[in-house]
Amino acid sequence: MFKALDQDCEDIGENAANAAVLTHAQALEEPGAPWLRPVHDESEAPASPGLAERFANRCRKLEAWCHHVDLAPDLANDIGSRKWLRGLATLVGLSAVAVAMWPDFSVVEAATAVPAESRERDEFRSQTIAPLALGADSGRHMGASPLVRPLAKVPERPTIQLVSTLGQGDSFTRMLKRAGLGGSDISRVSDLVESAVPMDEIASGTQFDITLGQRPASNAPRALDSIDFRARFDLDLSIERDDGGNLAVVRHPIAVDETPLRIRGTIGSSLYRSARNAGAPVAAIQAYLRAVDKYVRLDHDLGASDEYDMIVAYKRSARGERQVGDLLYAGIERDGKPRLQLLRWGDSGDMFSVSSIDKPRAVPIGQPVAGRITSRYGMRRHPILGYTRMHAGIDFGARYGSPIYAVADGTVTYAGRHGGHGNYVRLQHAGGLGTGYGHMSRIAVSSGAHVRAGQVIGYVGSTGLSTGPHLHFEAYRGGHTINPANIQVFARPQIAGKDRDAFKARLTSLLTVEPGAALGSIAPVASEQAEAEREIDRLAPKKIG
């Protein structure tokens, strides 16, 4: 018994080994292999294959063929080979079948959910795009049909209200003309506005609310009924036509508080960031830095514990508007003591140091022309005469026609032709100092005139003994030439006498302003007229005794 079992195991093992060495294709090609056939009794005779079995065999053969041929290979590999071309043909064929079976678009007619009568259909047509294209303002208004005839005369609106803006570089007259006013109204309005406020004080960008009335004639411009605008920060103007048909100006003053805005704080790591965090306007900070930079070095002379103090002009209107003006005061404090105090003074708007307004001072001169030094003071070989002699000045090379500036305040003692100097100007300054300017192409001042530092006195040229356009700059003291390099001018006090007292009073007034006081609310203005008594109050019984 055990021997028979061992024999059966050997037969099964042999058959399994044979199956292991066959390929998948060979297994499909031999459907009658013993390991794939169903197990039947040895006594049963083999039956002929049925229809289902034959169909299954053909499907297996077709699957094997498709696997062998590989009709859909990866088109990213073996580009250009026969296998790749076969895959491309498969792709084109499948795409052609998909396009051929693409569904057609056709109109599908269906009954409406709600029965539409003729009236409803007309309503639907009126809400389409065509009426809107013909000028209808909504879907419920049909466009004009051929039966509609235009009117011979269209009635005008009795009044027109519009807003006109005064542009930059524009004039008040041109703005009114664009708005549609007639010549007589423009002339009258300009005279009325000029009587209330100068035209140059009306800022560009000002808006004018204009109301135009009816035309006096068919072709005449509309008459002006009224015009309202903001003339100044503290004034509104209205021009209205009265019952008699005459235009009159009406002033509407606006309450304005002009308390200066004072901002103080510690410099810290950055003066700019500290001032911005304190709420200072950007323009005020920039003006403060420019003013202070002339007296101290911002990157070396200021410490983190120092304090800045700035006061700017500030206006607040009763309507809530704010207007920031010029920098009035700039100060720096160290250990509670003022280190620098600058105050705006005079019509020019210059910032003056409080500590030096009543003291004479020596001021270094500036450069008389924008150029570079080509020859210094001292002995040199003359480029034209050819021998060595004293060069009693400094030459600045500059472009022909460049402006020449006075280095300090002074009086013109000579202006004209002067030998080898060509066109020459000589100035006499304070402290016995004089300066000379030679080789000019043109002189811009005359003898006896008083000039200020930085004023143009002439233009660079090449007159006299000169090899090219340049400025020959000389300096004199006691009638003798000196080296112009590093000379200083003795200047008189900037502010003296009554101006000095007014200057100090202005400084004291500004320093009494509390920081942030200008940010408060404006005090209500007391009414000049008593409040009118109500009619109901007049009927109330009066108390007697």
TrEMBL record:
UniProt keyword list: Signal
One Pfam family linked to the record: Peptidase_M23
Region forming the signal peptide: none
Top-level division of the source organism's lineage: Bacteria
Record's keyword annotation contains Coiled coil: no
Residue span(s) of domain M23ase beta-sheet core: 389-484
InterPro entries on file: Cell_wall_metabolism_enzyme, Dup_hybrid_motif, M23ase_b-sheet_dom
SUPFAM superfamilies xrefs: Duplicated hybrid motif
Protein name: M23 family metallopeptidase
